[in-house]
């Protein structure tokens, strides 16, 4: 048994980010063609495009502001013209900001998280799910976070955005399930990425002490779950929030 995405086309938003790059490459290694969304890092997008091309997969880069509905609609038009129908959407992009307390966090930071977590997902659904409905199948995957269950100090804007996103995904799963479209969320813990490997910051004893597996996860481990949910192996899983955190958070039944 293996993950086979041959003949599928996937869109990854925030594909030039630390986790996005590994997700895109992993989907390509499983056989998918890729639409690589980026906001401002065109050079990294071109580098990723070349890496996926070297794997023998088709790929295109598309710039867009995922917090703007018109920009997402243009992204959809461009991807459709170049690659055809998208089978897999991975909503990974998020606006970065400086975390602080509720009393000190600016209102703009709350807006940015709502727009990049909730509205990005809404815009992507409106753009891509109608074609999935027409062909009776598709995968819609959002990248959430363990923080949505932790609710630690200074996380309020991020948690608010991701918990709002969670509501959209759960409702959407019920709305489009009859069309054999699955809607799921992957919730990484504090993940080791290429930046950590370069900077030598892979270890955090304080964090690891509280994780049942006693380590941080890796970007590849996150991408593996995304690929699984994108595949036919996960055809009867929908509405799920899947922590990939070594047991650091555990949703209750």
TrEMBL record:
Coiled coil: none annotated. The keyword Secreted does not apply. GO terms for molecular function: oxidoreductase activity. It holds the Pfam family adh_short_C2. The keyword Membrane does not apply. CDD domains: SDR_c. PANTHER family: OXIDOREDUCTASE, SHORT-CHAIN DEHYDROGENASE/REDUCTASE FAMILY (AFU_ORTHOLOGUE AFUA_5G02870) (PTHR43639), SHORT-CHAIN DEHYDROGENASE_REDUCTASE FAMILY PROTEIN (PTHR43639:SF1). Belongs to the short-chain dehydrogenases/reductases (SDR) family. This is SDR family oxidoreductase.
């Amino acid at each position: 048994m293996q993950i086979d995405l041959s003949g599928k086309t996937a869109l990854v938003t925030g594909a030039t980010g630390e986790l996005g790059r590994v997700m895109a490459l992993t989907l390509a290694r499983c056989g998918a063609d890729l639409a690589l969304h980026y906001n401002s890092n065109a050079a990294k997008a071109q580098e990723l495009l070349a890496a996926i091309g070297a794997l023998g997969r088709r790929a295109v880069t598309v710039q867009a502001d995922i917090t703007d509905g018109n920009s997402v609609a243009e992204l959809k038009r461009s991807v459709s013209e170049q690659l055809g129908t998208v089978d897999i959407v991975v909503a990974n992009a998020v606006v970065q900001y400086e975390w602080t307390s509720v009393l000190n966090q600016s209102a703009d930071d709350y807006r940015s998280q709502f727009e990049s977590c909730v509205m990005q997902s809404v815009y992507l659904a409106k753009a891509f799910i109608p074609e999935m409905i027409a062909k009776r199948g598709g995968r819609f995957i959002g990248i959430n976070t363990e923080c949505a269950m932790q609710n630690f100090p200074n996380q309020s804007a991020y948690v608010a955005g991701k918990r709002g996103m969670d509501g959209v995904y759960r409702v959407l799963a019920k709305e489009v399930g009859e069309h054999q479209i699955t809607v799921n969320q992957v919730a990484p813990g504090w993940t080791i990425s290429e930046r950590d490997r370069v900077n030598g910051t892979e270890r955090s004893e304080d964090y690891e002490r509280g994780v049942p597996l006693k380590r941080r996860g890796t970007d590849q481990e996150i991408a593996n779950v995304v690929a699984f949910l994108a595949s036919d192996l996960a055809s009867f899983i929908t509405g799920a929030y899947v922590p990939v955190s070594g047991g650091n958070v555990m949703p209750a039944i």
